[in-house]
Write a structure and sequence with these properties.
With about 270 residues, this protein is an alpha/beta fold. It contains 8 helices and 13 strands. A hairpin with an 8-residue loop joins strand 10 and strand 11 (about 210). InterPro entries: Aldolase_TIM (IPR013785), DAHP1/KDSA (IPR006218), KDO8P_synthase (IPR006269).
Length: about 270
């Protein structure tokens, strides 16, 4: 996959990693626009190719009373407004076959959640839209096995596919990132490291997922050092009151410093 295949993406010639970044879920128009505006400002300054991320709905929830969204079309229209306002591409995840065509009318990249990446009909539906497809590696899958998920997309005559590592289950309530998987998966697709979801602590007795945001820079640095093509970071200006995944999101106020450090590391690594 070439970055040029993602509509509206900027700074393609900067030789930097690309970034998928935004809130976990679209909670409303004001919050989405506020986050997008700040991330656009930072990525333009640092010449980072940027895709705004926001889930139009959340289907994988621990409890039935967990926040799932503000309404599908309402959230998708907000994603379209973000794209049009800031002239940037957008990505959202889909959960059902019918979501593929619906979301494809509003966003540039369709993301397959980790728990669903073995669902052939869902992957094929995303591929057949002709959009760029981001396949999240299942927490239960080996890096090598993701080649088959990629092939499902390319067999649909869609070469625009990338893979995102979001950690591997380690016991019941923790995840680890096996950095050996980055070069393995780069053999068949560009690889993104989902920094914030890799730091989740799932299956808590409260039914609310925990996290280790204090380790975000540690994981991100390791990804950049090991030549990851892109980074995935969820961010919010008020993580403590975010309606989804607040425990592992990066506070928006820390994003510029983090990305500044990472771009400096990238330049050093590329010069070696």
């Amino acid at each position: 996959m070439k970055l040029s295949k993602i509509p509206k993406i900027k700074h393609q010639n900067s030789d930097n990693f690309f970034l998928l970044c935004g809130p976990c879920a679209i909670e409303g128009e004001d919050m989405a626009m506020r986050i997008a505006e700040r991330v656009v400002e930072i990525t333009h300054k640092l010449e980072i190719p940027y895709v705004f991320k926001g889930s139009f709905k959340k289907a994988n929830r621990s409890r039935i009373d967990s926040f799932t969204g503000i309404g599908d079309e309402k959230a998708l229209k907000i994603l379209r407004k973000v794209s049009e306002t800031f002239d940037i591409p957008t990505v959202t995840d889909i959960h059902e076959i019918s979501d593929a065509q619906l979301a494809a009318e509003y966003v540039d990249v369709l993301q397959i959640p980790a728990f669903l990446v073995r669902q052939t009909d869902l992957v094929v539906a995303a591929a057949e839209t002709g959009k760029v497809v981001n396949l999240k590696k299942g927490q239960f899958m080996s890096p090598e096995s993701m080649k088959h998920a990629v092939t499902k997309v390319t067999d649909c005559q869609n070469e625009q596919v990338m893979v995102t590592d979001r950690g591997t289950m380690f016991g019941y309530q923790d995840l680890i990132v096996d950095f050996r998987g980055i070069p393995t998966m780069r053999e068949f697709a560009p690889v993104v490291l989902d920094v914030t979801h890799s730091l989740q602590q799932p299956n808590q007795s409260s039914g609310v997922t925990g996290g280790r945001p204090d380790m975000i820079e540690t994981i991100a640095r390791a990804g950049v050092v090991n030549h990851v093509d892109g980074l995935f970071i969820e961010t919010h200006f008020d993580p403590a009151n975010a309606k989804s995944d607040g425990a592992n999101m990066l506070d928006l106020s820390h994003l510029e410093k983090l990305l500044s450090n990472l771009t400096a590391i990238r330049k050093t690594i590329k010069s070696l």
